[in-house]
Amino acid sequence: MRKYFAVLAICTVFSGISSAQETKNEQGKPAADQKVSPEVVNRKNPVVPSASSLAEAKKIFTVDCVMCHGQEGDGKGELAVSMKLTPPDYRNEAAMNKFTDGELFDIITNGKGGMPPEGKRATPEQIWDLVNYVRSFAQKKSSPPAK
Ligand code: HEC
Hints:
Blueprint: H1 2-27, H2 38-42, H3 51-64, H4 66-69, H5 78-82, H6 93-96, H7 101-110, H8 124-142
Helix pairs in contact: 3-8, 7-8
Bound molecules: heme C.
């Protein structure tokens, strides 16, 4: 029994080391190397932007995204400002509509430029929730939410 726990502990330590290295490699990848295939662009969002999808996304967004994208989605989060990054303004609907849901899914999963990948921390469903949430900033501005 004790032997089993020792093996388990060693495995845990090793998998921790290798996943830390993977993250480093991915972030070092230049953004220009990212090619987006037609399958990615045309991928349909399987998650409807329901209240529960948006609520789930808001939790993740508050922890992992607000520091760069800002509470209002304006791209002026503290970390973005201090790193001199200029994330796009989510409230600009015309700019956001240049991306399909599939492309937003890809950017959130794999990162882009100064943006870190979220794919290892969230499930695909949570990423689609985030796509819905990111889109909701533009909709909020054009039509006030019904109470
Ligand atoms: C370290 C700062 C940082 C963090 C943290 C971050 N982003 Fe970004 N994000 C950026 C930057 C910078 C861009 C613009 C990338 C580019 O175009 O080169 C961007 C672009 C995007 C885009 C593409 C939109 C567009 O118009 O280009 C989406 C969608 C997005 N981020 C969502 C998220 C989500 C969701 C999270 C949290 C899971 C997140 N980001 C976390 C900095 C960040």
